[in-house]
Write a structure and sequence with these properties.
heterodimer; A: about 425 residues; Heat Shock Protein 90; five-stranded mixed sheet; B: about 140 residues; alpha/beta
Chain lengths: ~425, ~140
């Protein structure tokens, strides 16, 4: 029974491989050539005629007919080639291929097409319609220098075209086709991997953000213990006591309920921020710091926290309040971890021209010099199994990438580690967001 | 001659409301010799004066100005007070390993988790009180 299952798993694996080979590897080639003899040699080299490909559903009526009139579809071993004779047909083919998500990996384009059409102009148009395709120019005359083509197509497209002189040899055409196709497919693979990577990264970041939520949750849990004691204890004592005690008891209970509601609201704000809070907008620079201190107040109970802020009631910056709260929660947690049960944390905020500057300093042992450059790298941790090594990496990402600010880690000249966060007062560098 | 209710109890909690609830519960159980403090440091000062009567300590864990753990350590390091009965009151349900190992190292006699019903407080306090009475009797004989 287990061998049966193994076999079916093997089959699935095999199917997967085939799928990759047959479907996702793109071998489609477009040939744009007005001279019949040369079109023949492409046909001979790259493909053999196949039965009429089933007519595509015509979404664009007349244009479609125009395209199929003077063109044919051929297939050889690995290549699937479409041959067209005019620039107009070529553009129709490209447009269709993009619309139908059956893109060409490459095109061979004659530089001098009939009726004075220019192959290079055509490629420029093709590039604007299809952002992935590679093109190989084929010309009988060296009428265009490689540099002039480069100038026309631009630096950004320089790795998407190649150049071949007529008369070409069979080998040249075949190899150009192979290498262009392989290049197209490698780029697709690369993009796919990058996309997967960035998705995995964002999943990782959001799960790491939940770690700081969990840390705050522990503090909230602790506070709730006290609040529930106010409620339970007072209720029980009121029942035992006289009637006039009861009124006082109920007042205490109601107050405790209000406190609990307030904590819950703050906590929900951290775990599930409103769109308003995530948005970059003008905020008091002190506000995210206060919010973080508020959230951490319970954990900070046995720590001495000194705050120095000038003009904190007027100093503003354009930022996502929610993200900065995350940064400060992380940094405060980090400072507490560095010191253990108790210790001192100095926090300052100051106006520095176009920037607001926060400093968070602990009075722990500081960061060993040989690792100080690495502490903001993802997965770098000194906490063994107690840390994911993402906390500071996220702080830096939020400050530098999300806010265009600066995130500096250093040891204070006297004692402890110091984190300097600079956030621009306006986010003009990014262009005005809606 | 002496009853458990004669025992002197020290209650330490930075949260005044929580503290008064504990004190009122203790009074309702019949204990009358209760001294209360809002921080570990104040309690240490009181306990270290050996003229002050102390039989049982009920302390919160997390407090500014002297945590429950620093109080416990001070008690255990004091030659006169080292065998005091000590109950830690905490609302940390998921007690981190650190806390448990630290508390075990410094011999906590009982744990009480906030919030609690009066009945539970009574059971734990009575048990510690009886134990304290037994020891008092042993020393007297």
């Amino acid at each position: 029974m287990s061998s049966e299952r193994a076999k079916s798993l093997q089959e699935i694996e095999e199917q997967k491989k085939n799928k990759l080979r047959d479907v996702s590897y793109n071998r489609r080639i477009l040939v744009v050539e007005d001279e019949p003899e040369i079109a023949d040699s492409y046909r001979r080299l790259l493909g053999q005629p196949i039965q009429q490909r089933k007519q595509r559903r015509s979404s664009r009526g007349g244009m479609q007919k125009m395209a199929s009139a003077g063109s044919e579809s051929l297939e050889r071993e690995k290549f699937i080639i479409d041959i067209v004779h005019t620039a107009e047909d070529a553009l129709v083919r490209i447009e269709d291929s993009v619309d139908e998500n059956r893109p060409y990996a490459m095109a061979f384009v004659d530089v001098l097409l009939g009726e004075g059409k220019d192959g290079i102009e055509l490629v420029r148009e093709i590039f604007s319609m299809d952002s992935d395709i590679n093109c190989v120019f084929v010309t009988a005359y060296q009428d265009r220098s490689v540099d002039s083509i480069h100038d026309l197509l631009g630096q950004e497209n320089s790795n998407r075209w190649d150049y071949l002189n007529k008369p070409f040899s069979d080998g040249e055409i075949l190899q150009k086709a192979r290498s262009s196709i392989s290049l197209w497919n490698m780029r697709q693979q690369r993009d796919l991997k990058q996309q997967e990577l960035s998705e995995a990264r964002s999943r990782l970041l959001s799960s790491e953000r939940m770690v700081s939520v969990a840390a705050v949750a522990r503090g909230v849990g602790h506070e709730f213990g006290n609040i529930l004691l106010h409620i339970m204890g007072r209720a029980e004592l009121s029942r035992m006591g006289e009637e006039e005690d009861m009124k006082h008891g109920l007042d205490v209970i109601l107050k405790a309920c209000e406190t609990a509601t307030g904590i819950l609201e703050k906590f929900n704000g951290l775990a599930k921020p409103s769109e308003e809070k995530k948005k970059h907008q003008s905020i008091l620079a002190m506000q995210p710091l206060n919010e973080a201190l508020d959230l951490m107040s319970h954990q900070l109970m046995s720590f001495e926290v000194n705050i120095t802020a000038n003009e904190d009631d007027v100093l503003t910056c354009e930022a996502s309040s929610h993200s900065l709260v995350q940064v400060f929660v992380n940094l405060i947690m980090n400072a507490m971890d560095a010191m253990g049960e108790s210790g001192r944390i100095d926090i300052s905020l100051k106006d520095d021209g176009d920037w607001v500057e926060y400093r968070v300093r602990d009075f722990g042992p500081g960061i060993p010099e040989h690792i100080i450059d690495h502490v903001t790298e993802a997965f770098f941790t000194t906490k063994g199994n107690n840390g994911t090594g993402l906390g500071l990496a996220i702080c830096r990402e939020i400050v530098e990438i999300e806010h265009g600010g600066e995130f500096v880690v250093k040891n204070h000249c006297q004692q402890g580690a110091e984190f300097v966060i600079r956030v621009p007062k306006t986010q003009a560098w990014e262009g005005k967001s809606e | 001659m002496s009853s458990e209710n004669d025992l002197s109890i020290v209650v330490v909690d930075d949260d005044a409301l929580a503290r008064s609830i504990i004190v009122e519960f203790l009074q309702s159980f019949g204990y009358s010799k209760i001294k209360q403090f809002g921080s570990g440091d104040q309690a240490i000062k009181y306990i270290q004066d050996v003229n002050n009567p102390v039989d049982l300590v009920l302390s919160d864990w997390e407090m500014p100005n002297g945590t429950g753990l620093s109080l416990l350590k001070a008690v255990r390091c004091n030659t006169v007070r080292k065998d005091l009965h000590f109950m830690m009151v905490t609302s940390q349900r998921s007690q981190e390993r650190f806390k448990i190992s630290q508390a075990a190292k410094w011999r906590v006699d009982a744990y009480l988790i906030k919030p609690f019903r009066g009945k539970v407080l009574r059971e734990k306090v009575d048990e510690l009180a009886q134990s304290a009475m037994r020891e008092r009797a042993k020393q007297a004989s």
